[in-house]
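Input/output pair, single chain:
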Amino acid sequence: MASIHFFCREVTRMSLSFGSIEARVLQLTMLCNMVKQSDKW
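Output:
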């Protein structure tokens, strides 16, 4: 779980660098999808 939180924080930081809310939402959506897929395994 710690790695997921770390990755989420990094993605959020990268998204903030872009300064685009749309990009941030897209990144977080992709992150949530990857987390859901990892939970299935």
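The chain has two helices and no strands. Residues 5 and 20 are 21 Å apart (CA to CA).
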